[in-house]
Sequence to fold (305 residues):
Amino acid sequence: MTLAEARRAVRDGGDFGALLAFVPYAEWLGLRLHQRDAQAPVLRLPYREALVGNPRLPALHGGVVAGFMESAALLQLLLVLEQDRVPKSIDFSIDYLRSARPEDSYAACELTRLGRRVAQVQVRCWQSEATKPVALARAHFLLAPEANATAEHLQA
Amino acid sequence: MNEPTLPLALAQRFATLVPHMRELGLRLLRVEREFAEAALPLRPEFLGDRERGLVHTGVVTSLIDSVCGFAVHARIGGLVTIATLDLRVDYLRPVRPPQALICRAECYRLTARIAFARAAVWQEDPGAPVATSLATFMHATRSMHEETP
Fold:
């Protein structure tokens, strides 16, 4: 299955796993599609003990929260743009607002900039209370030129 | 004056007690007062781009967050409670297996409550890093020793 076929399948209500298979790390972390939305899907990271970074508190590892949010940003791009290849990460910046408890986490992304070659995605991560984010992050990605076609439909 | 140091064996034992460090397979190599260094052998499930065979940046970020934490512990001279406030990573080069990632982090400024750290990650050549990073931590060192908060 090509990336375009996997994307079309998810957009048509099919299996998210087909798209996830292009990003093995996100699959390994255990990412799930929580809320289907063409432009702003919500992703879920189910809790498991292997994600803990501080067993005494306990709290999720800061790298898990970051990796989840980076994965969410990447999958958002794969889902909404017409990229034939996985965009490359340029940089990533995260602010931790509260400690992530040992429970399911959620992430939602906003495509805040879509240029010819660079996209910026802002990500918000929360747990049981959506109004109390665990972390906020932004990521820049390098796009392949074919993303241009989609820029128009997003601006429309 | 003898500065407190964090023994490597103690730090390594701590790393095995942290579930996600164990899951990643992080191997602590050196812990000095000035820096901490760890290796992360790469596995197929760490890929972020299956088709091009590139490692996901989340793996690099997790490594950096972990090793910066050890650098803070090392500078303080003990395993205290720390929390990452923020972290920024620049992904300078794509990461391709199989060569393990090496991360070296230093805590370049320690105040009563805050620790500032920087890190670099490379595969073969420390002069050609795949990522560089800045991170800020809160630490609970003072509150554990002070009589009043």
Residues 3-155 of chain A form a domain with the Thiol Ester Dehydrase; Chain A fold (CATH 3.10.129.10).
